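Q: Hi! Curious about what NitT/TauT family transport system ATP-binding protein looks like structurally. Here's the sequence.
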Amino acid sequence: MELRFDRVAKTFGSLEVIKQFDNTIHSGEIVALVGPSGCGKSTLLHMVAGLQTPTSGSLSADAATIESPSPQRTLVFQEHALYPWLTLVDNVALALEFQNRPRAVAKSEARQWLSRVQLDGFEGYYPHQVSGGMRQRAALARAFIARPQVLLLDEPFGALDALTRMTLQSVLKELISEECPTVLLVTHDVDEALYLADRVLVFSQRPASVLKEVQLGHIPKTHDLSDFAAERREVLELLGIDAGSKAKNTNVEGVNL
Ligand SMILES: Nc1ncnc2c1ncn2[C@@H]1O[C@H](COP(=O)(O)OP(=O)(O)OP(=O)(O)O)[C@@H](O)[C@H]1O
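A: Let's find out. The predicted structure is below.
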């Protein structure tokens, strides 16, 4: 599904959040949005999800104006993604039950999806009984089971430790390559953006505008991003970070290095 932003602007009262955003996200493309905290990245995702409307300009999915939420466009948050009172299998099955699929079919498919994210044996566990990484695996299963054409990821692994995050990034990458949704990923983690995306949009401070588009191409990547050192440096410098430093750190804007 192709997403088209045509002079999209957004204000909340007197607060100008997005100045003017023009872009086309091609069907099956994976685009990461990075930028300073509060510049409006989540607002852009919420508009694609149909939870917010542009103040001016237009936003369409396959040429149809986005006016409300749709199961074709799924949003995955950083946390609180699962219902705590439902088991993992019921959480995942719910996405299909919302589409009026029979409960038994939904549960059977949910079990298969939990297996795809390596959660066999944990189907009957409640979210509080499993680790944060396992909860996000289940959240990915719940997002993918409905076979969305657009996947909107808002800091999906932001609450996880670095090692778990890298493992989950690999799980997500595999699911994306098998299911081929169009993906918009908001992240503070520049390496996550480089690893997952075909293209990175670097935003300015609010009101957000695109400082630069970095093309990475739809090519196989590993967590060894040494081939993308130039792109990494470019993104970091645009974010105002001294890219010469090798220190693993977090700057004042909350961008992970
Ligand atoms: N519903 C709303 N009503 C009023 N202001 C809002 C609303 N949603 C977002 N904002 C404001 O819009 C600005 C951009 O918020 P947004 O969450 O899109 O930024 P962000 O770039 O995703 O930030 P972060 O990286 O910290 O998550 C913020 O100043 C925020 O307070």
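A: A fun detail: The pocket of adenosine-5'-triphosphate is lined by residues 12, 17, 37-43 (CB under 6 Å).
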